[in-house]
Amino acid sequence: MSNGTVRSFPPIVARFTRYLPLLPLERLIAEVANRVAGQHPEFFDRLDDYAKKSFVIVPTDLDWVACMTFHNEKVQLRLSRSLESFPNRDVTVTAPFLSLVSLLDGEEDGDALFFSRDLTIEGDTEAVLALRNALDDAEIDFVHECSAIAGPLSRPLESGGKRFIEALKKSAFMRGAQEESPSHPTMDGMPGPYPT
User: Fold this and answer.
1) What number is the average pLDDT over the span 1-6?
2) Cα–chain-centroid distance for residue 70?
3) What is the CATH number of the domain that holds 145?
4) pLDDT of residue 127
5) Sign of the C-alpha dihedral, residues 193, 91, 33, 143?
6) What is the pLDDT of residue 107?
7) Which of 53, 55, 104, 193 could tie 127 with a disulfide, CB 3.0–4.6 Å?
8) Helix (H, G, I), strand (E, B), or coil: what is residue 119?
9) Largest interatomic CA distance in the chain
10) Which residue, 94, 104, 101, 110, is CA-closest to 57?
11) The domain containing residue 105 runs over which residues?
12) Dist. CA 47–CA 148, nearest whole Å
């Protein structure tokens, strides 16, 4: 498990993603999330009453935010360009995108990210702990789950995806979050730190 310097995309990536349609991405993530949930029905048991909460995920280096809610053992997911689209959120989790992926995969130390301020959590901390425990039990492999929906092309996609992410983490294209500023980076139209 890594606890090294967080890497984040440079601002040009956020500006580029501003022009990408959100609906296809929303459907892809929702399909992957529900595929994982279907394979791990105990996920909802672990969430217990916290399944009623709304969880907003903010990748600090991209130009969108995601809101996850859970209903009838299904994951509902909405993407937006603005955090203010989700005024009734119970939890806000903020971190660079690759750190969020690494947290899902269990490769990053969430406590280390939190205490170094590369990961921030606002709202119901007990709900966050319940979600973290449920995700840890599910042992999610993000790239594997995303590529699995491609059928016969899943294995080469998974292999290529994992090599690509590892190359990104080591690339000079990425920037150390600590090198930018003592707080989270600010994206155009999305001020940081993010309000509750």
Assistant:
1) 51
2) 16
3) 3.30.1050.10
4) 92
5) positive
6) 67
7) 53
8) coil
9) 45
10) 94
11) 7-174
12) 25
Strands 55-59 and 91-95: parallel
Answer whether residue 65 shows pLDDT above 80. Answer: yes
Lowest mean pLDDT among 22-31, 62-71, 122-131, 149-158: 149-158
Contact 121, 91 (CB under 8 A): yes
Q: Give me the pLDDT at residue 32, please.
A: 81
Residue 38 covered by a domain: yes
User: Tokens at residue 179, please?
Assistant: 């090198």
The domain total for the chain is 1
Looking up tokens 């039990």 gives: 137
191 falls within a domain: no
The mean pLDDT of 22-26, rounded to a whole number, is 90
* 195 is a domain residue: no
The answer to whether position 190 is within a domain reads no
Angstrom distances, CA of residue 164 to CA of 55, 85, 101: 28, 32, 13
pLDDT at 57: 94
**93 pLDDT above the threshold of 90:** yes
